[in-house]
Structure formats: structure tokens, C-alpha cells
Amino acid sequence: MLVQTLVIAATSSAYMMLLALGFTLIFGLMRIVNFAHGEFVMLGAYAVYVLTVPCGLNYFVAIPLAGLFAGLCGVVAERLIFRPFLGDELGAMITSLALAIILQGAVMIVFTVDQLSVPRPISGVLHFGSIYLPNDQIFVAGSSFLVVIAFHFLVHHTRLGLALRAVAQDTEIARAYGMAPSVILPLAFGIGCVLAGLAGALTVPLYAVNPFMGEAALLKAFIVVVLGGLGSLPGAMIAAVILGTTDAVISVWFSATMATLVSFVLVVIILIVKPSGLWGRA
Amino acid sequence: MRLDISGLSVRYGAVEALNDVSIAAREGCITAIIGANGAGKSTLLKAIAGLVDVSDGQISANGVALVDKPPEARHALGIALSPEGRRLFPELTVVENLMTGAIRRTDRDRVAADITAVYDLFPRLKERRASLGRNLSGGEQQMCAIGRALLSRPSLLLLDEPSLGLAPKVVGEMAHAIERVARSGVTIVLVEQNSRLALSISSDAFLLEAGRMIMSGPAKDMLADKRLQDVYLGT
Ligand SMILES: Nc1ncnc2c1ncn2[C@@H]1O[C@H](COP(=O)(O)OP(=O)(O)OP(=O)(O)O)[C@@H](O)[C@H]1O
Ligand SMILES: [Mg+2]
């Protein structure tokens, strides 16, 4: 039971990290509270559906393609829709809300509101003695962590990552040292959306695919990021582990409803003690 | 890099920070900009780097007009600013801050050697290399901000009060370092509260007062000027 709970906790933490890192990256650089973030998760999930079911592509090939597709949509959205609202936090927020509604509507028109499903690419369980671990969960947890590690490497060990952090911390001085927001911002938005798309793609076999799936994903990203401190990458990672573990343990031992309740109470308590979030600065 | 500024005016709303200022900086020389608090010195450097909008006038570097170029394009031409208040990236380490200076360089293999050279210039930075920008002392931040500017291998280096916050012994070393950088062919525009120090290492100097350029000439003449001594040099 303990090991199973740990695997569920790891899966849920890793999924929350994927959701929250992109959301907080976009906020950190552009001050956009992207209410359409969940819709990029949905785009990733639908991309996997289209690539695997009608097109017959292998699921494991479809995952990176779906992430890339969500990322490209993100770059286009940044250039066409968010660019005019740079520096206008409220305007950008309302725009993101509109984008969320438009993407939901577009998906409804094309795919109807029906629940879609993708054949389970992985089945079976691993068992060591009395411990049973479902393979698909291990796959989701493992690949999510790999993506998070790759993202961490990008942010901390590449020139692009250095530029992302510099622009987030002082855009004016970053510009004076040659980092052009017109290049960095769409890339950052795109990378955030790649993470969201991958979150959607990786969990397609576990969760249902429908036009409204983005709402739950957004809520998860939001609560993690608020707990970790808006705009903070390390904060998002730690908060994802805290909330993912709390959620898993309480779901397994009590109920999912109880888990959600406790998560929110936990966040409220932490925010009362530290209003800027665990890692945030006021 | 030769810098020519003519008829430059900058305003912040109703405040006229610079009014019809004309200045030239010769290639490979140190040009001092002196003046009282609020005279417009920092605004002048920001206007050159492209961080404030110019309401009138021309700025050109080696004959290339800068006024309509964004800051990143001016950086690409070889302009680097060590700004007022240092403005290090607070959540980046010292090494990372230095590397942001070199982020657009194409000769990647020489960056490590240049970082070592900055550490030789400011050994204190080497000890603090893994510390975050926001945890440095004022003097350490100053060294790091200048190091960051040097790491971009500029042709035109804009220094805003580089001696601020440094211990007297380090101020002397900083002055020598600036002279050495100029000797390597870099044009330097030096803004300083410490006018005596600035004039003693500069070739040319300009005096700003309330946004206007009221005096200019060879730095050694200004250093000897009786009126200037009374008001700005405190002797
Ligand atoms: N962002 C701003 N908004 C409004 N007014 C400003 C701004 N920055 C500077 N000023 C004003 O412009 C004038 C020139 O300021 P500037 O910072 O260029 O002076 P300075 O010569 O660098 O002074 P100091 O020696 O104190 O650094 C001052 O009157 C200042 O109050
Ligand atoms: Mg100043």
C-alpha cells in the first residue's frame, strides 16, 4: 500500500509540475496570468488523439509531436494575441480568458463535446511480492520527471535559459545586453505551452479527453503556482510535490473529495502565514 | 568607437532632464561627465544605451544614428552600460551575471578567459562567484556590474558612478582598471560624483548643470579651473 501510494504521489506531483512550470514561466516573464493554460493541455491531448486514432501513429511518437504542436500554438498566440498587451496585466488576463473560450469552442465544433479516448498504449502491472504497480502510471510519472529535468537543464545550463531568467528579472537591463524581448517572449510562451501540451499528451490514457478538460488542469496549475509563489520556478516544483503528495495520500486513504478539500485548506493556511507563497517575494 | 551627441533633449513628463546637450567622445579616450545631483548625468547614459526616449536631438556611434534603435540593437553595435544602481540580475549568481554580459558573443571559447580576467581585476568577485546578485554588498555589486559590461567586450563603455560604494583602496584600483580598458582601445564615458578622480583619468570632460551642458574642455584644464574647484572639486 505504501509503495503504491508513493507511485500515485509521484505521478500526481510530476503532472502538477508540468502544469505549473509552464504557467509560472509565462507569468514570470510576461506578467500574464494565462487562463488559457489549461486549453494548451487540452490541445496536447487532442493532438495525441488525432495522431494516434485517425492517423494511426504510434502513441510514443505522438507525445513529442503533441507537445511541439501545443508549443507552436503558444508561439502564434503570443505573437498575434498577447503582444499588444505587453505590460497591461489586466488586458492580457482578459485576453487569455477569451482565448480559452475560443479554443474550447473551436474544439467543440470540430470534435463535438463527446468524451474521446485513446487505446491504452501501456497495460499490465509490475509486481514485486505483494506490491502491484500499474505500468501506465509508472510511465506517466517517469516521463513527466524526465521532461521536468530537461526543462531544468534548459533553464539552468543553456544560454536561452540564462536569457529567460535575465529577462524575467530585469527586462530593461536584459535588453541593454542584447536579449530582445521580441525573440525571448514568444520562445518562453512556446516553452510553457510545450510543457502544458506534454502534460495533456502524457495523461491521455489516464484521463478523459473532452473540450472542458483544461479547466481542471488550470485549477491545478493555479493552486500550485499560488502556493509556490507566482513566477517562481523552484516554488512551483516544491509546491507541486507538496500538493501532489497530499492529494495522493488523502485520496488513497480517505477520498478524492477529502483530498481536494485538504489541499485547498493547506494552501489557505500557508498563504495566511506567507502571503507571497513559499518562494515568492512580496 | 566615436560617439557624437548633438542637441539632445530628454524629458520625463514635465521634468526636462536634458536640454540641448551636445557632447563628443573620442575613440579610445575616457570622457568624464560631471555635475551635481539631478544634473542629468545618468539620463545621458541611459539615452545613449537606449533606455529612455529622446525628445529631440541626435546620437551617433561611428556615424551610425542610434536614436531610433532599440537597446538590443545598440548593444549589438558594441555599447555596454554599467547602470546607476548597478541593476544586477538579483536571482542570478555572480558568474551568471557576468555571463549575461557575454550572452550575444560569438567567440564563446574566449568567454571563460575573460571571466578569469575580471576575477583578476576584482579578486573579491571570484570568492563570491556562487552568490546571488541580491546577496552581494554594494561594492561587490559594483564590481560585478562593471565586470558584466566588460564581458560584452564593448567598443563603447558607459560607466555610471563606478567608484560609488567602493573602499578608498579599491577606488584607486578601479581607476587603474578603467584606464587600462581605455588603453586597449575602448571608448569610455565616465559619470562620477568623485569629479577629481574622474577628471584625473579622463582626456575630455563635460560639466552638466540642471540638464544643460555649461562647460567642456580638456579634463586637465577643468581640473585646474578656479570656478570648478570652488563648486565641484571641493577645494
Ligand atoms: N524616471 C524618472 N522620472 C521622472 N524624473 C526623473 C526620472 N529619472 C530622473 N528624473 C529627473 O531627471 C533629472 C536628472 O536625473 P538624473 O538621474 O539623470 O541625474 P544625475 O545627474 O544622474 O544625478 P545623480 O548624481 O544624483 O545620480 C532629475 O531632476 C531627476 O529628478
Ligand atoms: Mg545618476
Quick gist of this model?
Chain A is mainly alpha-helical and 282 residues long. Chain A has one domain (2-214). Chain A is 74% helix and 3% strand.
Task: Summarize the structure in words.
- The complex is a heterodimer of chains A (282) and B (235).
- Chain A is mainly alpha-helical and 282 residues long.
- Chain A has one domain (2-214).
- Chain A is built from eleven helices and two strands.
- A two-stranded antiparallel ribbon of chain A has the order 1-2.
- Chain B is of the alpha/beta class.
- Chain B has helices at 41-49, 71-76, 94-101, 111-121, 123-127, 138-151, 168-183, 195-201, 219-224, 226-231; strands spanning 3-12, 15-25, 30-35, 56-61, 64-65, 79-82, 156-160, 187-191, 204-209, 212-218.
- Chain B has a six-stranded mixed β-sheet, with helices on both faces. A four-stranded antiparallel β-sheet of chain B has the order 2-1-4-5, covered by helices on one side.
- In chain B, helix 3 (94-101) packs parallel to helix 6.
- The radius of gyration of chain B is 17 Å and the shape is globular.
- At the A-B interface, helix 6 and helix 7 of A face helix 2 and helix 3 of B.
- Residues 41-42, 84, 160 of chain B line the site of magnesium ion.
Q: What's the structural blueprint in terms of helices and strands?
A:
The complex is a heterodimer of chains A (282) and B (235).
Chain A: H1 2-30, H2 37-52, H3 59-82, H4 89-111, E1 125-128, E2 131-134, H5 135-157, H6 159-169, H7 171-176, H8 181-203, H9 213-228, H10 233-253, H11 256-273
Helix pairs in contact in A: 1-5, 1-8, 1-9, 1-10, 2-3, 2-4, 2-8, 2-9, 3-8, 5-6, 5-8, 6-8, 9-10, 10-11
Chain B: E1 3-12, E2 15-25, E3 30-35, H1 41-49, E4 56-61, E5 64-65, H2 71-76, E6 79-82, H3 94-101, H4 111-121, H5 123-127, H6 138-151, E7 156-160, H7 168-183, E8 187-191, H8 195-201, E9 204-209, E10 212-218, H9 219-224, H10 226-231
Parallel strand pairs in B: 3-8, 3-9, 6-7, 7-8
Antiparallel strand pairs in B: 1-2, 1-4, 4-5, 9-10
